[in-house]
Amino acid sequence: MAKLVVKQVRSQINCPLTQKRGLIALGLKRVGQVVEHESNPAILGMINKVKHLVSVEESK
Description:
By secondary structure, this protein is of the alpha+beta class. It has helices at residues 17-26, 41-49; strands at 3-8, 34-38, 54-59.
């Protein structure tokens, strides 16, 4: 499966609680933090929920 590199680029301040929990579930706690995940429907759904706060790249 493909790996996704997810980086938080915007702050979670003033976001709804569901989006804050989505960032925590992805393992992101602060702006500039980078995590790597396998590409699966659950992860893609979490990324879609916070797509305006993160940047996503595909890793090899």
